[in-house]
Design a protein that fits this description.
This protein is an alpha/beta fold. The chain is about 50% helix and about 15% strand. β5 and β6 form a beta hairpin. α2 crosses α3 and α4 (about 60-75) runs parallel beside α5. The longest helix has 25 residues, at about 165-190. Bound molecules: BIS(adenosine)-5'-pentaphosphate and zinc ion. Zinc ion binds near residues 13, 14, 30, 32 and 86.
Length: about 220
């Protein structure tokens, strides 16, 4: 499969993408996760990116396009296809992706938008807990871990993301509406766009995704 998941912060991209990865044995490339791993390693890029991410802005197009290209070229899991989470989020990134795929004689099959009202996102973002090493995501109320503040699989501690507070969320949402809504329009014109209701419980959202895969097979 070759697809992208578009949606505002907290829409459920990182919750659904691993399930798609498992179903299709493809790679799951999340630019936010890649950037957070640079931040954790305190690389020069990570130090620069942290400031931008904590303010809810966007890292430069060239950097994220380069990160995706590197993975598509070298990550063996991507031979089975890919699901992109959080990329592209500007029109130049969408154009960069088209160019990369053209060079590989490939096309994108699905551009799925997770649609949800901004008002529902505050609770999702402020309750989110993550396991940094694996990227596994929980929610204090909607999807609590088996043991308080511990990852179900490794037992390691869960943490909050430094950009998961109401102030940063406001900026991330503003950035989304200004920069990523045009990306939705870009794919609507291309004919591969589908929108699904992301305000439903996770299992329902998954069913909506499955119906898209069945329709277009
Ligand atoms: P990124 O990591 O991509 O953050 P985001 O887009 O803000 O999205 P989130 O990860 O917050 O939301 P999600 O949709 O994955 O939600 P989740 O499934 O976890 O990017 C972070 C930053 O990096 C950006 O702000 C930017 O600075 C930079 N960056 C990244 N990519 C970039 C790019 N391409 N270009 C430039 N800069 C870039 O769910 C959220 C919570 O809700 C969880 O707790 C979950 O358990 C819960 N939940 C999920 N689904 C449901 C449901 N159906 N019902 C109830 N609860 C649910
Ligand atoms: Zn995410």
């Amino acid at each position: 499969i070759r697809m992208i998941l578009i949606g505002p912060p907290g829409a459920g991209k990182g919750t659904q993408a691993p399930k798609i990865k498992e179903l299709f044995s493809c790679c799951h490339l999340a630019t936010g996760d890649m950037l957070r791993s640079q931040v954790a390693k305190k690389t020069p890029l990570g130090r620069e990116a942290k400031k931008i991410m904590d303010q809810g802005g966007l890292v430069s197009d060239d950097i994220v396009i380069g990160m995706i290209k590197e993975e598509l070229d070298n990550n063996k899991e991507c031979k089975g296809g890919f699901i992109l989470d959080g990329f592209p989020r500007t029109v130049p990134q969408a154009e960069g992706l088209d160019k990369m795929l053209q060079e590989r004689n490939q096309t994108l099959q699905h551009a799925v938008e997770l649609q949800i009202d901004d008002s529902l996102l505050v609770a999702r973002i402020t309750g989110r807990l993550i396991h940094p090493a694996s990227g596994r995501t929980y929610h204090s109320t909607f999807n609590p871990p088996k043991e308080y503040m511990k990852d179900d699989v490794s037992g390691e501690p869960l943490v909050q993301r430094s950009d998961d507070n109401p102030e940063a969320l406001k900026k991330r949402l503003a950035t989304y509406h200004a920069q990523t809504t045009p990306v939705v329009n870009y794919y609507q014109k291309s004919g591969i766009w589908k929108g699904i209701d992301a305000s439903q419980p996770p299992g329902q959202v998954w069913k909506s995704l499955l119906s898209i895969f069945h329709e277009q097979r």
